[in-house]
UniProtKB/TrEMBL annotation:
Keywords: Disulfide bond, Endonuclease, Hydrolase, Lyase, Nuclease, Signal. CDD domains: RNase_T2_euk. Coiled coil: none annotated. Pfam families: Ribonuclease_T2. This is Uncharacterized protein. The keyword Disulfide bond applies. One of its GO terms (biological process) is RNA catabolic process. The active site is at H43, E97, H101.
């Protein structure tokens, strides 16, 4: 449109731990392309406002078009796997993320750039390596929330927000890691605002 101002302030770049998606009451289904690696997977790149609110579903005239990301599909299957049931090839998950979030940042990232940037941030952040370097392994053990945050801060250079969920026994566990990206989608920044939500002071890091 005519406006030159971007109508959002930053992105959350969100990654999920598959072990914590799968060991819940709701459970999970592996993609039709096979069990994902024991690594964090991309959940999404979400435009957000500094007041904590966010735009969504901004352009119903621009649906997800697989042909625009054909050169990224193999990498998306690996780095952005779907774990929802029933099993799928990922297109439903990627379409949802594009429709809900990606269409709200079209003025800075077209569809190909949106997926390519997210994959780039996945590689750049390498959260699992940051945690392992600090001795924090996906071994079902319990770790302090502060040690997890410090390990990611040290490895990535930015302070993450940790979202927890609960396993079937009700234990609080490491589910998603939020980092922030500037509103041009080009670089990591410190988060202007964190989401809200509870973790225990000690949380589990389940295997996958
Ligand atoms: P939940 O209610 O499970 O936390 O989030 C459901 C969905 O709402 C997320 O997957 C995401 O699409 C969206 N969402 C939740 N919190 C935020 C947020 O703080 N910022 C943005 N941009 N989206 C969010
Ligand atoms: P969000 O929470 O991002 O708004 O929505 C996530 C949507 O994508 C839900 O409809 C969920 O069923 C679907 N989905 C498909 N695969 C996954 C996955 O691996 N993780 C999450 N969190 N949602 C997935
Ligand atoms: P502080 O601002 O003192 O670090 O934390 C204030 C409260 O927020 C504490 O209850 C702390 O456990 C919680 N908290 C700090 N960082 C995170 C985080 O990354 N995720 C979640 N869920 N809670 C956090």
């Amino acid at each position: 449109g005519l406006s030159v101002s971007k109508d959002f302030d930053f992105f959350y770049f969100v990654q999920q731990w598959p072990g914590s998606y799968c060991d819940t009451k709701q459970s999970c289904c592996y993609p039709t392309t096979g069990k994902p690696a024991a690594d964090f997977g991309v959940h999404g790149l979400w435009p957000n406002y500094n007041d904590g609110t966010y735009p969504s579903n901004c352009d119903s005239s621009a649906p997800f078009d697989q042909s625009k990301v054909s050169n990224l599909i193999t990498t998306m299957q690996k780095e952005w796997p779907t774990l929802a049931c029933p099993s799928g090839d990922g297109v439903t998950f990627w379409s949802h993320e594009w429709d809900k979030h990606g269409t709200c940042s079209e003025e800075v990232l077209d569809q190909h750039s949106y997926f390519a940037r997210a994959l780039g941030f996945k590689t750049q952040t390498n959260i699992l390596q940051a945690l392992k370097t600090a001795g924090i392994q996906p071994d079902g053990g319990s770790y302090s929330l502060s040690s997890i945050k410090s390990a990611i801060q040290s490895g990535v250079g930015y302070t993450p927000y940790i979202e927890c969920n609960t396993d079937e026994s009700g234990n609080s566990q490491l589910y998603q890691v939020y980092l922030c990206v500037d509103n041009s989608g080009s670089k990591l920044v410190e988060c202007p605002v964190f989401p809200h939500g509870k973790c225990g002071s000690q949380i589990e890091f389940p295997s996958f």
